[in-house]
Amino acid sequence: MPARRMSSTYNEIQLLGVPHYLQGEADGLCVYYAMSMVLVALYPEFHGKIHEAPHYKREGSPVFQILRQRARSDRKFKEEVGDWFFNGMRTTDATRILNKLFCEYYTDCRATNYFIHQRVKCRRMRKRKYNRQLRALERIWNVSDICNAISWHLPVIISGGGIENHAVVAVGWGSEGRSRWITYHDPGLVRSSWDYVRKIFYDDCAAIIPNWECFTEHRPPALITRGKHTEYEVWNPEELGHSK
Question: Which of 67, 134, 179, 237 is the most buried (most CB within 10 A)?
Answer without folding.
Answer: 67
